[in-house]
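Interim report, section 4.2 (structural modelling).
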Amino acid sequence: MRRARPDAATAVLVTLAIGGAAFFVLPLFALIVRAPWSTAIGELSAPGVAGALRLSLVCSIAAAALSALLGVPLAWVYARVPFPGKTVVRALTTLPMVLPPVVGGIALLVAFGRRGVFGEALDAVGVRLPFTTAAVIVAETFVAMPFLVISVEAAFRSMDRRYEDAARTLGASRGHVLRTVTLPLVAPALGAGLVLAWARALGEFGATITFAGNFPGTTQTMPLAAYLALETNIDTAVLLGLALLAVSLVVLIALRDRFLSLA
Amino acid sequence: MRISAVVLIASLVAAACGGTTVSGKLTLFLAASLTDSFNALSAEFTKQNPGLTVTPNYAGSGALVTQIVSGADADIFASADEANMQKLVDAKLNGSDPKVFANNRLQIAVQAGNPKKITQLADLARSDVIVVIGAPSVPIGTYAQQAFDKAGIKVTPKSLETDVKQVVAKVALGEADAGIVYSTDVKAGGAKIQGVDIPDPLNVIAKYPIALVKGTKNEMAAKAFIDFVVSARGREILSSFGFILP
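Predicted structure of the assembly:
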């Protein structure tokens, strides 16, 4: 009886785990089953598709890079610098993780839109974000950066600071320590954060369509193209979904061993 | 006097239905441009039938018909064009013959005060005017393109929105200078926008068909609702929102 117990527990866990895996695998399997393979090449070589895929890749990579540029310093400040109101500021900058992306898009629009709170000043100096590719990158960065910040902040917190102290004692400058000790130590977390942020940016829909609009070639990314295709031709929508899925899957598998498992 | 007339009509309708009211639930899949008028129609219909709960789902007609064909539980479908209704018929999912219950005209929506001085369709081809229209998959996008073709102009929109209300929103927010919408949307759009008329020869008349969805679980209530939409009172409400009656 005592011996059977862990087996029963294992059985329950494994059953639930199979259910958990099936929950993700079944819808993706359905996409593959439903895909109109015979016309796939024709549908996917339609003029808009390559443009949407290219735009998706360019914008999501740019958003991930921008997230790293601004997010790593932010994570460092959160982990190392005490300041009043940090809890509130930190909550505000991670809010996009739980905020519906459409709400993020509305917020961006009323902030940086042509008649927005800050947009009018931008407009005065000739910067117009809405309906531009730059707006897509801004919208994607808005929803993606928190994932990178959280990942990197945890690494800054958990790293052994004695390495930095030792380097400082040995006479290294702050900049030198940052380059040769601190950043290499958080690199795995930064890699994981970059992948998460990139993946989130690639799938971004709500903030993009609200803030950047939808126009083939400038702002119509793959998720937007798939959504619009759904209104006319579900076959095209399924194929676009599969194409996006294939790209994401290849990248995630390729990067998994390098970054995600180390984080 | 007016109220008693309404009561009279309502009681006549009730009498015509054998004095019985309908109850249960109704899910309506409705073109986005019907938002305000069908909120009013539903409110009045549920007042006459207190046991009935009406849930409207407003979106682009193309998205709606795709959802129904994919198995969404709808009792009634009303489209902003005949093409998307035809998709329902082609899928053999209409529970009644589609009936055109309203027509709509196109208008150019501009910001209140018309800061860009837009007076005609040709102004939308100006390089200093930011234009937003519907995507080709939604009726208002197709109609807008037809109007541009009739006017013989080439317009490069900045965005193709997923339904007409999004076009209105982009103009109301000031992100776009002009958009092609239905005249009813300008009327419903509030103080931030105003409409510029498009003359008849260049205009396109949108036809709105309505039909039961096959397999409706509440056919009696769904039929009664469509009867109400095409009744004298239903027409009065639609007309008050700016629709043209067939």
